[in-house]
Amino acid sequence: MDESLMITESEKFLNQIEKERLDLTNLKEDFKDLESFLEIYELLKSNLDKLQEMKESMDESGYTAPFRSLNRYGSRVSEDVDFEELGEISRHNQIFRNKASAKKNSFDRVKYAISAHRIALGNLEEYAKIRCKDCKKSYRVSSFLDNEKVCKCGSSNFEFKINHSGIHRLEIIPYLPLSGNYMVLMSGLSSWGRESFKRVLNVLKQQRRGVVKTVTPIVKYKENGRTITKRVPLDSEFADSYEDELRRRFGKGVRIERLEFHRTKPTIINDKHTCTNLALAYVKHAEDIVERHGEAIFEDKIKDLNNLKIYDEIIYSVNLEKPEFIDSSDLEDWRKDKINKTLEELGLIDKFGHLDRGLKKDLKEREKIKTKIFADIAPTLILWDISKYYLCTSQDRRKRYGSPFPYIRGDIDRQQRKVFQNPHTQVVNLLREKEKEHILSVPDMDLLLHKKFKFEGKIKNLNIKLNYAAVGPAIVFTNSNYSIKEVSYAFKVGEKSIKREINNMKSIRKPNTKRSRDFIDLVKNKS
Hints:
Helix content is 59%, strand content 8%. By secondary structure, it is α+β, with helices and mostly antiparallel strands. A hairpin with a 5-residue loop joins strand 1 (128-132) and strand 2 (138-139). It is globular, with a radius of gyration of 30 Å.
């Protein structure tokens, strides 16, 4: 396909997604039955498939590095070129740059749209259970569609069930840039929203400790009487035994001049498009929460909200004024004088230009609320969702199936777990009170995640069937001060299931019978 046509087609399709955007604001109410759920899911899946095809075509056409040819050929000008031709060459270079820029922007938009669709589908996948009415077998949505909507028992009679213990947050789906318009959404963020966006990105981009990817020794050795210097790239498997490998290749006389260790630092979510989309969606959802409850929060924290509103109105209205008799260079001073004069008339400022003490205190309190509460809502929610995902899923599932967090790592190391240390207790309490959010403030969540990963390592080869949705709550209950009722409510898992998994975990850690101890020892020896 012609490059210009490819860009046009992709833009047309993305604009169509934007134009024909479904109303996704009340998904939970809209999903009354299986048909209504599948209508949304299949549409998103169809769009994703088409976007994937576009991306593959763009990959084949060199859209991944559109400026490479310019860097190689367009930056140098021969000394023999006449002065008259320089303008023509510059004009041609500009044309190619514009084309390369159009390619990059179009390709980026497609990749962001793909990522947004994956996040949406991952949440829907977690939200739904499709159960056969005849044999009661439950299916994931993707498996259900792969089986062409027919159960293994031959029945086509299914019912839609909500997976209450699943890790999903449908509220973020309306704010995902499904048409790749992430820049538009970013430009609409509030001041505290932009700060919150940065904080969420910092969470998702938390890096592991550097892992050696390759080793490149620069060596000298003799061959046919000549001394040869050579760079020898070695894989990570030789990170600790590079000397032996070099001697094997070049003999005992090889000498290492210099060593270069190339390290990789993978992040919690190892894809920038997914990180950006998740951060955007969670922050926009947080802004929606603040829009509903912000007034009530300010009323609780600020003494004189009325004076604060008057102050804001004066600042806003005066800053909009632009009298014709005032020169542009003096406009700011004029506005400042008028603001001070108006505030002085209302008694909100004294003749020396000092703000009223109460108003000044309220202004500081409002700023504190924005930076310490509002800006922490999105990080709190996404940290809770990610911690739930790690606690309530098996390692196998995290590797094999999609999730609400595409490209998330199967496990995280100590360095990455540090982001879970701050529980944002004040924000958690606010969310529980105002939004009735199922969430807990767990001070040592990083340690609980470590316990979970350690437990997974212990049962790796035991082939024991566990209810992982209850394993997470069991770990939280046994390592915190929360009652089993509170934990059950937060994770939406029954108390009996939690108690059962507590007993299972105890029996795995400390087998009760000699037979079970012998079995575990046997498995450990084999592994």
